[in-house]
Fold these 3 entries.
Entry 1:
Amino acid sequence: MSNIILDKGITISHISNKKIAIIGYGNQGRAQALNLKDSGLDLKVGLRKNSKSKQKAERDQLDWMEIKDAVKWADLISIMLPDKVAPEVFRNDILDNLNSGDTLLFSHGYNIHYKLIIPPANVNVVMVAPSAGGNIVRTEYQKNYGVPALIAVEQDKTNNALDIAKSYAQGIGSTRVCIFMSTFKEETETDIFGEQAILTG
């Protein structure tokens, strides 16, 4: 199988009947949520009780719930939290509210690769990592274009985790350009190398 995947042959049907929770509403979370909404998907934003992002989600005409409730409601949980806070939120609000067969989706491999988040064995674990910040992910989608993304599967409980990742990538617009097969390890290490050796080198 080629590492480069184009839009042709990908169908959004693998997530069109799923309930999607976007956990966190920062730069990347907001962009992906709005793109998925405009792709006709069913989603809610999961926020902490005291989050300042509630008003932002409401202005964007998106429903929000507290994180625990959003995870219970959803079939696909997209974790868009900063790497530093994600493990604590996962332990406190996500882990005990997952159902067998749910899909956990990440846009960065760090916490999975370094085992700071250890998902249960009865869920899918996938990655869809756009190669640009959230503002660009959103503006390119609105131009009927997109930004490339890396996708990966760490756990495939339902035997269709890769199809789910591809459909999600289509929902945020990335397959309009192309997506690349990768791994959590590869994405994490190349990202860190890029930040440390190139941007700050």
Entry 2:
Amino acid sequence: MKAASSRARARKLLASAAATLAATLTLGTPMAHAEDHSNSYPEGYPKVGAEAESVAGFSLNFTRSDGASGYVVPNLFTVHTSASKEGAIKAYCIEFDVNIKYESDLRVGDWKDFPGTNKFKDNAEIQSKVAWIAQRSYPQTDMAELIKASGIADLTEKEAITATQAAIWHFTNNFQYTGTVSGIDQASATRVQKLYEYLISEKNVGMKETARPTIEFKG
């Protein structure tokens, strides 16, 4: 019984590690070359910021192809690259089923190092579409540019976070957005829906992995 409990804790730790990797893979880092992994950051960095540093979107209703349904609150996470907290990275999660472990240490890795089991694991098309979303939506693309590209007037940051996370999970975990939970007005809900549809549409032609490194959880 004790051994089984230990294995369960180990699985939970590995699950948290996968989620942290997922959260930071999508936006990459400001470093110039992936081959510089060992000397990119000071000791102990990068690491996931505190929960209070994340920015929540609107609660999302969803269904999935496996029959699961419910609601979830998307977040834009903070990743610190130094103790000064300057040059922080903003990141989304690409594993729907696993919770992130806040204030966890990270190391630099590539898409191939992703330890999760969803479609991002070994599907090059999914990887490229997720990368396109991360680069073409907020915050990698500022709000003015995103509004212009999507044609969605009056779009807000919170709406953009909500739609962007939903679009990423659409590709990685068969997430089907079915609307927002109460507490959002109709105009705002409509903008979220339109941005979600834009990000998963045929306009998403994918994007290859760049030379910049991505972040992986340090197990």
Entry 3:
Amino acid sequence: MILAPSLLSADFTNLQSAVDLIENSQADWYHLDVMDGTFVPNISFGMPIIKALKPKTTKVFDCHLMIVNPEKYIKDFATAGADILTVHVEASTHLHRTIQEIKANGMKAGVALNPHTPISSIEDIISDIDLVCLMSVNPGFGGQKFIENTYAKVVKLIELIESRNVMNRPLIEIDGGVTLDNAKRLIGCGADVLVAGNTVFGSKDPIDTINQLKSLD
């Protein structure tokens, strides 16, 4: 299991402390939520923050774009330091073209689905993507309650991947409401990547919480 703490839940007045914590932990990736206040009802951070943080780290930058017209900014996020760039199927009119452009700019391509969006929406591009991010809360804010239907959605995604005989199986990422209580079941269903925000940064001992999550692998 790949663990990706979400910087959206970190202390924005001291991001260096959050980076130091993740760098000195068993966490594998950084999850960076980019919000524009239009696609989702919140605004977070963008390319300048990612570019400033990248030289201070050694781990993967998993950048999740919750924005309209994500295709306009692909090259900019590559330059800023994104290793994985995930766009929402709901925000991408020409999704195949966007995926190809992400890869052409040297990044792995991910596609995110909101809780109401069916797995069938990505069946025609499942062989082209490196990661599928299943939103297990409604996107926009951290600290929301986990949506129980996510377990069934993971199973449906695996069924799609197997039915299409996908050679390079995309990673399955769960984003939202991940806790010590549901992480093991998510892994058992087939999830590969768990995004943990409040569970890590809201903990009295974030390092111990990360260790507990990683021990579930």
